[in-house]
Specification:
By secondary structure, the chain is mainly α. Helices cover 61% and strands 0% of the residues. It contains 15 helices and no strands.
Length: 316
């Protein structure tokens, strides 16, 4: 699939959710969680492979006034399954201990330190799950969220004074590996998509010195657009014309052009991260009539990123 994309003239957008999951796999192995996770898998397998053991677990869950739910086995090819496994184990920790105490088995039980390690690992992996779901969900705009999401993860992985050594190793490995994998991303189009998303157009996810270059790129795209015909003047409703004048620094309507229109868009207030940016463009598209081309490009980028079956691709 990747080789085919290289032969085409289309921009290739790697699957960032897949990149993130590969990164997590590397970090788990490099930071000393391998042994603890192996024991977790054996615990889960003890119940998953035996209906009678599962029934005994359900009885203990009922006595503890918990929901009757099975444990979850992680699978290397299933995103976030390691997080789901440890979260379900932590939730049913007392029920698992009580069930195994009544059985004859050769399992090696998790120590208190290992249960604490799982608790910390759950905290580390939860932000990754939210980002994966955001980038992989077909109902979300994807490309414009990539850079803010990665910035959020980088800040989440900052080392604190109370982090034990294994957490420090995990965070260091996470940031290093993710930084290396980011080099393969299509940063040029990701930055344009971020700038044209009214939620993130302040570009706070980028270093301050790089933000101006993004807008320069957008201006260049506007000026490269071939032979855009000037639209015939139409009689605009008074309310709309008044709105445009209030949001423009131009002294004359004839001064409007790509740069002026782009400045007008940049002057718009950012919207909430929970708002729909596609809906915003649907509503404000007529107001920013000189930005149809980059806006349409930005709207198409999520479609490229959502084609996960063909080439794989909360925030601050």
């Amino acid at each position: 699939m990747i080789a085919a994309m290289r032969l085409l003239t289309f921009q290739h957008m790697p699957c960032v959710a897949h990149v993130l999951q590969r990164n997590i796999t590397v970090c788990l192995a490099d930071s000393g969680f391998t042994g603890t996770l192996a024991r977790c898998r054996k615990l889960v397998g003890h119940f998953k492979h035996s209906p009678s053991n599962t029934e005994e677990l359900h009885k203990e869950q009922t006595e503890l006034e918990q929901d009757k739910e099975p444990l979850i086995q992680d699978v290397s090819t299933r995103w976030n399954s390691t997080l789901f496994m440890i979260s379900r184990l932590l939730k049913n920790q007392e029920a698992v201990k009580a069930t195994l105490a009544k059985q004859k088995h050769k399992l090696t039980m998790l120590t208190t330190a290992e249960w604490d390690r799982l608790q910390r690992l759950e905290t580390l992996l939860k932000p990754c799950r939210y980002v994966t779901e955001l980038l992989g969900g077909e109902t979300y705009v994807s490309c414009s969220v990539v850079l803010p999401a990665l910035r959020h993860l980088t800040r989440t992985m900052e080392v604190s004074d109370d982090d034990p050594a294994y957490v420090v190793r995990f965070k260091a490995a996470f940031k290093k590996d993710l930084s290396q994998r980011q080099d393969a991303l299509n940063h040029g189009w990701l930055r344009v998509a971020t700038a044209l998303d009214p939620r993130f157009k302040d570009l706070k996810c980028l270093p301050r010195g790089e933000r101006g270059g993004v807008w320069t790129s957008v201006e260049a795209l506007l000026q490269k657009e071939p032979d855009r015909a000037t639209p015939e003047p139409t009689e605009e409703p008074a309310r709309k014309r008044s709105f445009l004048l209030c949001n423009s620094d131009s002294e004359s309507e004839n001064e409007e052009g790509p740069n002026g229109a782009l400045g007008r868009y940049r002057a718009e207030p950012t919207i909430s991260e929970t708002d729909c940016s596609l809906q915003w463009w649907s509503t404000h598209g007529p107001i920013h009539s000189f930005l149809p081309w980059p806006a349409s490009i930005w709207a198409a980028l999520p479609l490229l990123s959502l084609a996960r079956d063909f080439s794989h691709w909360q925030v601050t």
